[in-house]
């Protein structure tokens, strides 16, 4: 990659720093007193998928989520539908009302189960949580496509999505539900269903027409980096080469996304995991002016707080961010 000298210097600084101790997550402006957590700062929309993604990301990077976790779980539990799935919500004055169905049930159910299991003591003692967990597990199991060994979007949309299946893959108990004699390994079934050998890329969806859709940063480029976010294997060519190739193709575009789309902080998490602090620092530099705007999600807020516990203080060299 470009600017190798700066990368070496910054990585050396990072390596010499004492290990930082992550503190508590701060979702001021996103969370309210009822336990609700909006997608955006002082926002009027809640998508449980994004909140679960953000809280799990914080938990995995040792940010203390206890100030929000139980209250959010109870807020969700009060709004879980009879089939164990969840809607999206819009605020009408002080009231949060269901206003849209979820984009996808499979990933949302898996994240909900995974989230409840981050609080084993509460799950063990709380009968309502246990009932929700059991119902969500059963609902997720009904989304298995035994012919391909993957999970489908919902009972209505009978196709599989690559990134959704990777998120389900991170929930280990879901592996057994997808496996059968024809597909004994969930990870390999995902690869078989979505890897396009001719195009040397992962397809976003099992829908046939997806092969011919025009390329866009989301979902196409994001789908290619997503396996590294969830540490999915196998990665064609190995993680390091795969990551470098993605950055060579998409780094500049990624750092510009915040101007017209979203900040895509999840890619900065991948950079951190791939020992590329320069790109993570560049993400902060380029996106920080957009913090708490419509281009910034609760996931981006969590990513920023994670990076601030992992990276040295200071701003990025602009030459390294071209």
In short:
The protein has 322 residues and is mainly alpha-helical. Helices cover 49% and strands 7% of the residues.
How would you explain this protein's 3D organization?
Strand 6 (about 195) and strand 7 (about 200) form a beta hairpin. The chain has a domain at about 215-320. The chain is mainly alpha-helical and about 325 residues long. The protein is built from 14 helices and 7 strands. Mean pLDDT is about 90; it is low at about 1-20.
SSE map:
Elements: H1 4-16, E1 45-46, H2 48-60, H3 66-77, E2 87-92, E3 95-101, H4 105-116, H5 120-125, H6 127-141, E4 144-145, E5 150-151, H7 162-169, H8 173-178, H9 186-194, E6 195-196, E7 201-202, H10 217-229, H11 239-256, H12 265-273, H13 277-287, H14 298-310
Antiparallel strand pairs: 1-2, 2-3, 4-5, 6-7
Helix pairs in contact: 2-4, 2-14, 4-6, 4-7, 7-9, 10-11, 10-12, 12-13, 12-14
Features:
single chain; 322 residues; mainly alpha; three-stranded antiparallel beta sheet; two-stranded antiparallel sheet; 14 helices; 7 strands; globular; disordered N terminus
Q: What is the number of strand segments?
A: 7
Which sequence of SSEs, written as H and E, runs from N to C?
A: HEHHEEHHHEEHHHEEHHHHH
Portion of residues within helices: 40-55%
**Category from helices, strands and their pairing:** mainly alpha
Mean pLDDT: 92
Oligomer: single chain
**Span between N and C termini?**
11 Å
Cα-based radius of gyration, to the nearest Å:
20 Å
Give unreliable regions as ranges.
1-21
Q: Largest sheet, described in full?
A: 3 strands, antiparallel
Q: Count of DSSP helices?
A: 14
Specify the overall morphology: globular
Strand composition percent:
5-15%
Sheet with most strands: strand arrangement: 1-2-3
């Amino acid at each position: 990659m470009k600017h190798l000298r700066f990368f070496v210097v910054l990585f050396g600084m990072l390596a010499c720093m004492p290990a930082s101790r992550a503190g508590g997550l701060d979702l001021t402006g996103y969370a309210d007193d009822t336990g609700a957590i909006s997608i955006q700062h002082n926002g009027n929309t809640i998508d449980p998928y994004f909140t679960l993604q953000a809280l799990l990301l914080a938990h995995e990077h040792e940010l203390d989520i206890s100030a929000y976790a139980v209250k959010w779980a109870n807020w969700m539990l009060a709004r879980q539908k009879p089939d164990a799935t969840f809607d999206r919500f819009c605020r009408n004055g002080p009231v949060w009302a269901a206003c849209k169905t979820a984009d996808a049930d499979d990933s949302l159910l898996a994240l909900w189960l995974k989230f409840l299991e981050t609080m084993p003591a509460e799950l063990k003692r709380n009968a309502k949580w246990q009932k929700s967990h059991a119902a969500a597990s059963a609902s997720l199991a009904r989304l298995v496509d035994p012919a391909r060994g993957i999970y489908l979007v919902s009972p209505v949309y009978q196709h599989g999505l690559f990134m959704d299946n990777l998120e389900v893959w991170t929930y280990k108990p879901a592996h057994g539900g997808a496996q059968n004699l024809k597909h004994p390994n969930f990870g390999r079934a995902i690869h078989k269903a979505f890897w396009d050998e001719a195009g040397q890329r992962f397809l976003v969806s099992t829908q046939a027409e997806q092969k011919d859709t025009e390329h866009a940063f989301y979902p196409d480029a994001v789908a290619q980096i997503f396996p590294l976010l969830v540490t999915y294997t196998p990665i064609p060519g190995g993680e390091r080469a795969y990551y470098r190739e993605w950055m060579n193709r998409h780094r500049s575009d990624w750092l510009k996304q915040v101007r017209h789309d979203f900040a895509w902080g999840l890619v900065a998490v991948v950079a951190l995991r791939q020992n590329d602090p320069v790109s993570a620092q560049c993400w902060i530099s380029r996106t920080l002016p957009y913090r708490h705007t419509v281009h910034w999600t609760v996931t981006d807020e969590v990513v920023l707080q994670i990076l601030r516990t992992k990276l040295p203080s200071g701003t990025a060299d602009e030459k390294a961010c071209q």
